[in-house]
Input
Amino acid sequence: MLRADALKSIYPRLKSQVVVTIMGAVAVELYNLGHQPNFFYLEHGMGLASSMGLGLAVSLPKEKVTVLDGDGSVLMNLGSLSTLARYRPPNLTHWIFDNESLLSVGGFPTATGTGTDLAGIAEKAGAEHVALADTVEAAEQAFAEASDRNGLSIIVSKVEAIGPPSFAMDITLLENRFEFARHIQGLVS
Amino acid sequence: MPVSVKNSEVLFAALKSAGITLLSALPETWLVHVMQMAENDPDITLIRLNKEEEGVGISAGAHLAGRKSAMLMQNHGLLTSVNGIVSVAQLYRIPLLMVISYRGEMGERDPWQTEGGRVTEPLLQSLGIIYRKLSDPAAVAYEVRQAQTLAESSLRPVALLLTRELMWEE
Output
């Protein structure tokens, strides 16, 4: 499965959620589907997208929050899976796209290519709902289920190590940051 | 354990009166009472971390959601959080309030704390983070309020260093 195809299939649902992506291909591919003020692209701070999602989810109990993460970032902050499972915000979906590669920085292989099982780690960290979704149909269904259920959902998808042709995004980091905060302010007021 | 309960109460009350409702923390001897108070207070969400850097992300998320938060950690937690501070809090202009127990300073008996103590202030200075040392309990509420005000107006991290004088009774 291409990550871009999975994102396309869930894009209609993402439009009504609070979304945090990691840097690189995931950010660009979501942006290319059509930027929304409720999309935040964390362009650095590798590993901390899931922590940001936790901070957002516990602060916005009426919103659905989704983090679009990757294997390299999750491996860099594995403890976060344990923290998410410990506090299990019921409105948080943590989706890990696993391409077994640090694609955006040259495609070096990560440890998921040599046997590290992120879904298994999430389960053993205590997450009660861990879904595998390796096809577009499965991805769409897993995300629909995650969006409808009241509980922390973790989805792990194996995807091809193929990114977008260009990493250009016509939005500055701070523009994105202030627009996102302003949008949320509107949601809660 | 001669951690000052009284001054922990002063600090916790100061954080609450600054409007903070979310604390992320990793257990540390000097902070045990504050963490217990946070755990027992229904108005405070306490998130216990596995590693301090997670707290930077949590506070960033909370801030973008319009909620006031602070990180409670030891100065070695500050050391382990540096990338998050630089590439999330500073890059994205997050008003991150960091309340840091200042181990390894004058009077420290634990040899393992001493290297961290030596580099804490130079590190904050090199990161351009404005900080104050808290030693007088009577000034704690004022200093917390001032730190919170500066963090929010500058949209940058600000640090408060909790000294032995404030936290330890011996």
The helical segments of chain A are 3-14, 25-33, 49-59, 71-76, 79-87, 118-125, 136-148, 173-188. Chain A touches chain B through 36 residues (CB under 8 Å). The first strand of chain A starts at residue 18 and ends at 21. The first helix of chain A runs from residue 3 to 14.
